[in-house]
Amino acid sequence: MKCTSCKQGELIPCFIDGQFRAHTCTSCEGHWILIEDYVAWKDRNPQFSFDESIQCDIDETNQAILCPVSGTIMRKLRLSTRTEHRIDYSASVGGVWLDKGEWELLKKEGLAGSLNAVLTAHWQRNIRINSTKDNFAEIYKDKFGQDTYKKVKELREWLYQHPNKADLRAYILADDPYSAEK
Ligand SMILES: [Zn+2]
């Protein structure tokens, strides 16, 4: 199989960390992993944990990569909200392309044991939701200032779990809560 990332090397069978079957490029050292191989290994080794104290040096390719099996463009999927880093996924074949260093990044992020979960729609949706939340938090912090934001956030959390929240909100927002006039 030809490497579709660097377009120079051959994808040669290997075992990643001596654990599960994959292919590695002879030139760019990226990995091609079939999810069924990964899941089968995980089923046999449910307790296995990867070393997370690891350094990684990534040769990321930002351009679209073709699936080495089907030749179609692979989707780029984010790993988590903590990193902007994206891996390439061929949904039709069920394969993942990891650039050199990306496997090490997965280990560092504690995600090497969850590679199959990262690829699910549910996981990807959570990343989008949490990224949006982070963005809003930044906007509020900017607008209110760090201390005020912290205070108002605490007040809001306290208010929203209070059984009298509707009355309390009316009290806070009224121009004069002690006036009989509306
Ligand atoms: Zn390559």
From TrEMBL:
Residues 2-44 form the Transcription factor zinc-finger domain. InterPro entries: TF_Znf. It comes from the Bacteria. Pfam families: Zn_ribbon_TFIIB (PF13453). This is Transcription factor zinc-finger domain-containing protein. It comes from Thalassotalea insulae.
